[in-house]
Amino acid sequence: MDIDVIGLFPEAVRGFCDCGIVGRASQLGIVTLRFWNLRDFAEDKRRTVDDRPYGGGPGMVLMAEPVARAIDEVRAQHEAPVLYLSPAGRVLDHAAVMEFAARPRLILLAGRYEGMDERVVRACADEEWSIGDYVLSGGEVAAAVVIDAVVRQLPGALGHEDSAREDSFVAGLLDHPHYTRPELWRQERVPEVLVSGDHERIRTWRLRESLGRTWLRRPDLLEGRELDAEQKRLLEEFKREYRG
Ligand code: ADE
Predict the structure, then answer these.
(1) Collapsing DSSP states into helix, strand and coil, what is residue 20?
(2) Of 2, 26, 135, 174, which sits with the fewest C-beta atoms within 10 Å of its C-beta?
(3) Rounded distance between C-alpha atoms, residue 160 and residue 152, angstroms
(4) Burial of 61 from C-beta contacts in 10 A (0-12 / 13-18 / 19+)
(5) Cα torsion angle, 7, 8, 10, 12, sign
C-alpha cells in the first residue's frame, strides 16, 4: 500500500512511522510512506502558506494555492483519493479503517491553524475524516493515527497473524483483559482459567469478558446487535456475577 502525507509538520508523522509496527511494515515494503511539506509548495520566497481569515476572527487559515499545488504534485506521481483530516469530518471507526486498508493508495492531508480555505477542500479533497470529537492543533497526529490503524491491518504487518483479528472492535466488541508473568503480582493472581491449559474454557472466558466489558463500558456497541445463543448465555452469566 502507498500512503502520502501532506502537511506543515510531515517530519512529525515520519518520526512516528519509523517506529514499531509501522516502521517494520515500511521496512518490509508492506507500506510505502511519503511525506510532503506544504511550505515547499508556497508561492513566495518566505514560503508563506497561511493568511488571516476573511471576515475576521482569531488564528490563521491555510491558503488554497500551496495546498492545491502539493496535491497536484502528489497526484501527478500516482492518482489516489485525498482524505482531509479535520475535526469537521466523519468520525473514524473500525469499519472505515478496514475500508482504507483495502485501498491501494491514500493521500492524507493534514490541516493546521484554524483550518484551510474551504475552496481547496471542495476542489481537492475527496473525503473529510476526524479521529474524534475534540480539536487537535493539527491533522498530523490524526494522520499518524490513521496510518497506525490501517497499517496494522495489512497482511504481514503484525508478527502474530491473529493479533489484528482479535483486536477490540474487530468483532464489534471490546477486547478481553490480558495477563502475563508473574502469575502472582502484589497479592493478585492471574485468573485461574488462563493457566488451566483448557483452550475451550479459555475461549469462553475471554468471550464472556469481552461481552461483559462491552456491556459495562460501551453498551452502545451492543445496541441493535443480534447475539447468538452462546453469547447471550455468557453475557447473562457475566451480569449475574457482576450484580452478585
Ligand atoms: N485536526 C484537528 N482536529 C482533528 C481531529 N479531531 N481529527 C482529525 N483531524 C483534526
Answers:
(1) helix
(2) 135
(3) 11
(4) buried
(5) negative
Q: Distance between CA atoms of 113 and 96, rounded to whole angstroms?
A: 26
What is the grid cell recorded at 155? Answer: 497482511
Q: What is the pTM of this model?
A: 0.94
- The C-alpha atoms of residue 174 and residue 207 are separated, in whole angstroms, by 10
210-219 pLDDT tens trace? 999 999 999 9
Catalytic residue, candidates 73, 167, 175, 237: 167
Give the number of the atom of ligand 1 that is nearest the alpha carbon of residue 129.
Answer: 8
Cα(64) to ligand 1 centroid in Å equals 19
- d(C-alpha 181, C-alpha 86), whole Å: 42
Q: pLDDT tens across 109-161, in order?
A: 999 888 999 999 999 999 999 999 999 999 999 999 999 999 999 999 998 76
Q: What CATH number does the domain located at 168-243 have?
A: 1.10.1270.20
**Kindly report the CA angle at 157 between 155 and 161, in degrees rounded to 5?**
65
| Domain 2-151 = CATH 3.40.1280.10 | yes
The residue annotated as part of the active site, out of 14, 39, 73, 87, is 87
